[in-house]
Design a protein that fits this description.
about 300 residues, alpha/beta, Spore Coat Polysaccharide Biosynthesis Protein SpsA, Chain A, 3-stranded antiparallel sheet, 10 helices, 14 strands, about 30% strand, disordered C terminus
């Protein structure tokens, strides 16, 4: 099983991993079933917070302390570039705030009242200092090497027209799939919205995020991520491309809070379709063949570059 992989019942129950990058060594333990705290021990003087961050990871959260702890533990264990982690939200009495106060490598932006996921992410995006910005849900975490692969891909010369890297994630939805990969028996997928590629989890340059005006706060809970992808493509004239080595585990927890938010999902989606004049469902050809043909050069160059590195 890979680090932070799934147990047979679908949950990452207890995980321990050691990473030694030559500068630091981490030991991370997470028990999601019992809600035990994630533990971090550092055996070197250098930490990511002492370097200029290459990537800022922004997480919106509300009353999900156990999942948030697992998410941050996954970030610590599986990302080896200089980073900053920004959490926006509140715990609604579950101890999230007090736990975050003890996390020296996390910047916390508390919310006294819930204003919706879109505004929460915007607060984190505007506070970010990294060259790149990545967003995560509190019930998700990147697999080992995922973020490095995304950065490597966007920085290749062949990717000069790429504005955003889409991470593949393990969502079981069958419709609107654009491309899928299988790793260790789990399928990870990127999706399209009415025929247009978009990122459920994405990485882009902070300057581009500023250029397109951050997130459109007319959305409350959802639709802001395809909207951002459309802004990158239609306003900035750049592409959204998936990286097959950039994988994210997403539990997609449906709890009381999310069930309540889902009641306005149709309203958010209607705003998205109207804003961009998107076609009716299934009134367009399957976009997957054209997408795969269009990214063949980028993916091929990336695979060749990775192979050359492995053979050194």
């Amino acid at each position: 099983m890979t680090a932070f992989g799934r147990s047979p019942d679908g949950f990452a129950q207890t995980v321990a991993q050691k990473i030694d990058s030559g500068r630091r060594k981490w030991v991370v333990e997470v028990d999601i079933e019992s809600g035990a705290r994630g533990k971090m021990k550092r055996n070197a003087a250098t930490s990511c917070r002492n370097s200029r961050p290459v990537v800022s990871i922004v997480i919106a959260t509300y009353a999900r302390r156990a999942r948030l702890e697992r998410c941050i533990a996954g970030i610590r264990a599986n990302i080896n570039v200089p980073r900053e982690t920004i959490v926006v939200g509140s715990g609604a009495g579950d101890g999230t705030e007090s736990w975050l106060e003890d996390q020296a490598d996390v910047r916390f932006i508390p919310e006294r009242t819930r204003e919706g996921a879109t505004r929460a992410y915007n607060k984190g995006f505007k506070a970010a200092e990294g060259d790149y910005v990545l967003w995560l849900n509190d019930d998700a975490y990147p697999l080992p090497g995922a973020v490095e692969a995304a950065i490597r891909m966007i920085e290749r010369p062949e990717s000069d027209e790429v504005g955003m890297i889409a991470f593949y994630h393990n969502m079981g939805r069958k419709r609107n799939r654009l491309d899928s990969v299988n790793r260790d028996g789990t399928t990870y997928t990127i999706f399209n919205v009415r025929g247009v590629p978009y990122a459920n989890f994405g990485l882009l340059r902070r300057g581009l995020l500023e250029q397109v005006g951050y997130l459109d706060e007319r959305y409350y809970f959802c639709a802001w991520d395809p909207d951002l992808s459309l802004k990158v493509q239609r306003e900035a004239g750049l592409r959204v491309v998936g990286c097959r080595e950039a994988l994210i585990h997403h539990e997609e927890l449906i709890d009381a809070r999310k069930s309540e938010d889902l009641k306005i999902a149709d309203e958010d989606n209607a705003k998205l379709f109207a804003k961009w004049g998107l076609p009716e469902s299934f009134s367009y050809p399957d976009p997957a063949p054209a997408y795969l043909e269009s990214v063949r050069g980028i993916i091929g160059a990336l695979d060749a570059g990775d192979q050359a590195v492995r053979e050194r």
